[in-house]
Write a structure and sequence with these properties.
Number of domains: 1
Structural class: mainly alpha
Low-confidence stretches: none
Helix content: over 70%
Number of helices: 6
Order of helices and strands: HHHHHH
Mean pLDDT: 84
Shape: globular
Distance between the termini: 73 Å
C-alpha cells in the first residue's frame, strides 16, 4: 500500500491556520446561538419577514444567491474585524462591530438562506460546501462537548440555574 504524498509544509501550515480560524468562528457562533435564538424566532414570526421570505423563495436561484451574498459578504468579514479590534485592545469597538455583524448575519443571512435553501442547494458546489460546513461544525462541537472544560461549563451553568430558581422560590415564599 502506498501512502499519499505529503503536502508541502507551507500548505499544511496554511490549512492548519484556516482550520483554526474556522474552528474559532464555529465555536463563537455556537456560543452566541442561545443568545440570539429567541430574537431570531420572534423576527421570523413578523409578517414583514414572512413576506420577504416568500418574495425570496419566488426568485430564481441565481438571484437568491446574489441576495444572500450581499449581507454575507459584509457581515462575515466584520466579525473578523471585531475580533481583531478586541485583540488590539479596542474591546468596546470590537464588541459593537461583532454584535452588529452577528445581528446582520443572524437576521438577514439566516432568513434569506432559509427562504431560498431548496433552490440554492440545487447548485452542486453549494450543496457540497454546506455539507462540508455542517460536517466540520458537527465534528468540532462533538470534540468540544467531549472535553472536560465543556462538562465543567455545563455544571457551572446548571448550578447557576438551580441557584437562581432556589433564590426566586425563596423570595416568593
Amino acid at each position: 500500500m502506498t501512502q499519499p504524498p505529503k503536502q508541502p509544509l507551507p500548505l499544511r501550515i496554511l490549512l492548519a491556520v484556516a482550520k483554526g480560524v474556522l474552528a474559532g468562528l464555529v465555536l463563537l457562533d455556537e456560543a452566541a446561538r442561545p443568545l440570539y435564538r429567541p430574537l431570531s424566532r420572534w423576527i421570523a414570526r413578523l409578517r414583514i419577514v414572512a413576506r420577504m421570505e416568500e418574495a425570496v423563495a419566488r426568485l430564481p436561484r441565481l438571484a437568491i444567491l446574489i441576495v444572500l451574498a450581499v449581507p454575507f459578504v459584509v457581515a462575515e468579514p466584520l466579525k473578523l474585524v471585531g475580533l481583531l479590534l478586541m485583540a488590539r485592545g479596542r474591546v468596546v469597538a470590537g464588541l459593537v462591530i461583532l454584535a452588529l455583524a452577528y445581528l446582520a448575519s443572524f437576521l438577514l443571512v439566516e432568513r434569506i438562506y432559509h427562504a431560498g435553501r431548496d433552490k440554492l442547494l440545487t447548485y452542486r458546489w453549494l450543496a457540497w460546501l454546506m455539507g462540508m460546513i455542517v460536517s466540520i461544525r458537527e465534528r468540532l462541537l462533538a470534540w468540544v462537548r467531549a472535553s472536560a472544560a465543556y462538562a465543567f461549563a455545563r455544571r457551572v451553568r446548571d448550578d447557576a440555574r438551580e441557584w437562581w430558581r432556589e433564590s426566586f422560590r425563596k423570595d416568593r415564599s
